[in-house]
Amino acid sequence: SSGINAEYGGSEKERGVEKLRKKFAANFVSRGMLERKVKEERQLEEKKTRQLHKQWLAEQRRERDTYLAKRHERQREKMVSQIAAVAEQKTAKIVELEMKADMYRGVLAKIQGESKEWDERLDRLQREM
Question: CA torsion sign, 93 to 94 to 99 to 102?
Fold first, then answer.
């Protein structure tokens, strides 16, 4: 008898149940669509956030690389200037030592000359005696 009632519009109770079923189905579908939309928006926001984070990291990396490059350049310049200062000191010391050596060679030549002169005087005196 319920089949016959359904064919001809059914009872008031069945029509109410059917109405509620349709309403529930419509709510279920619209809720599912809303949840899907919220999920898609959340994923889009997460994607944007990841992209911004990647850009921030890349910028941080560029800044760090620039800073390190400048720092290494300053260190290299400092090292080169220190090496140049040491080389200049060594060159000055070499010049000083060469001047001393020239002076000592001059003194040695003078002493050798005087020694030869004394040797010749000694030879003369010995021959005269």
Answer: positive
Given phi > 0 = left and psi -120 to 50 = alpha, else beta, which region is 11?
Answer: beta
Backbone dihedral angles phi then psi of residue 9, each to the nearest 5 degrees? 100, -15
Distance CA 99, CA 62 (A): 55
Taking only the tens place, the pLDDT of each residue in 63-96 is 999 999 999 999 999 999 999 999 999 999 999 9
Alpha helices in the chain (DSSP H): 2-7, 12-128
Q: Which residues contact 70 (CB under 8 A, 6 or more apart)?
A: none
Question: How far is it, in rounded angstroms, from Cα 68 to Cα 60?
Answer: 12
